[in-house]
Amino acid sequence: MLTRPLISRASGRSCWAAVRKALFSSSAARQADFTHTVVGGGVVGLAIARQLAQRPNTTTLLIERHASVGTETSSRNSEVIHAGIYYGPSSLKTQLCVHGKHLLYDFCEKHSVGHRRTGKWIVAQNDVQREALEGIHRLCGEIGVDVRWVGEEEIEREGEGVRAVKGALDSPTTGIVDSHGLMMCLLGLFEDAGGVVAVNSPVESVTPLGSGTPGSSGWEVSVRDGFSGEASTITTETFINAAGLGSVDIHNSIVPPEQHKQLFYAKGNYFSYAASTHSISRLIYPAPEPGAGGLGTHLTLDLGGRIRFGPDVEWVDSPEDLAVNAGRKDLAIAEIKKYLPGVDESALVPDYAGIRPKLGKRGAVTAGKGFHDFIIRKEDGYEGWINLLGIESPGLTSSLAIAERVDGLMYGSVKE
């Protein structure tokens, strides 16, 4: 595994010629330094890079601005393998989550990545939430995802203290995954396939090349070395923007002003739970409510069985605002008590926070007015550019399916 960036060395001498000679001497001669360049070393970028690196006679570079991969949204979430039950049947979020769930379970089994099918109850306390559950139940019938109604006696007998006044849906295919282990596995497979990782290498500019259609002669990517501060430039035949929280900045640096987008930052605060009075064996989610920026402050488990609550939704101005807002503990308690009335308030401790990259503020999370789907597309008017924007939940679950889609878009097996 490479532990320092390959963009430039402290001496100021570019190492690209040496890297190409060492790693790509058997590749066919080509004008660009690399066949594929993926910007963004989160779980989605890693999955895409690993997928593309498996293509014969190609070279793939993964650029990450931080000192190691997977330090932003990919490592600051609930680590849930979602079933794909919340979004419209024709949405990319549904299609890629449902397919990605199966790919992810199979991948984890094959490569011994920590995971567990915990199951999940989605619980309703009022008529609005009950209506949401009925909508989820109908959707699952349409898309073929397994859910079932949990009876009152079962809730009482096996609910482990959970309240569900207006009913509960069981999602047996929901689970949890070791996101760090998953990303390290993807990174190792990428490098085993000959991929090159450039960490601590923030992108300064991306320029499409060609006298006709932009990108028809490849792309030029300028990167600044986070260690030395020096800049280097590489060329690539294709460019994949999977930069997560930085994706809109990269998008806006390429397209004309009238095509610019804005990213909104939904911070999620998590609280760990130190009490020994509760032993919960499954995930518990409140039914989604209109106007919420997330799926509610839910109860999740890690692979050690430890309980944590979150995320809430706190709109912030910067993706760097990652300190847990302990002042939101009372709000979290109020939400948690709706479905777990016996929660020990004193055992809740601020744990960590993550930022969700959203393309709209206060829009619908599931479907309907204000819903923002994943954007994964060949950008119109350019050649060789695959653009990924608004990749939030269920991005972790969907990561392997997203990688397949990007590969298909680039090589023609997927049509938009």
TrEMBL record:
UniProtKB keywords: FAD, Flavoprotein, Oxidoreductase
EC number: 1.1.99.2
Domain of life: Eukaryota
GO molecular function terms listed in the Swiss-Prot or TrEMBL record: (S)-2-hydroxyglutarate dehydrogenase activity
Domain FAD dependent oxidoreductase, first and last residues per copy: 38-405
A Pfam family it matches: DAO
Coiled-coil annotated spans: none
Cofactors that this protein relies on: FAD
Keyword Oxidoreductase attributed: yes
Catalytic activity, reaction form: (S)-2-hydroxyglutarate + A = 2-oxoglutarate + AH2
Family affiliation: Belongs to the L2HGDH family.
Name of the protein described by the UniProt record: L-2-hydroxyglutarate dehydrogenase, mitochondrial
Organism: Sarocladium strictum
Lineage, top ranks: Eukaryota, Fungi, Dikarya, Ascomycota, Pezizomycotina
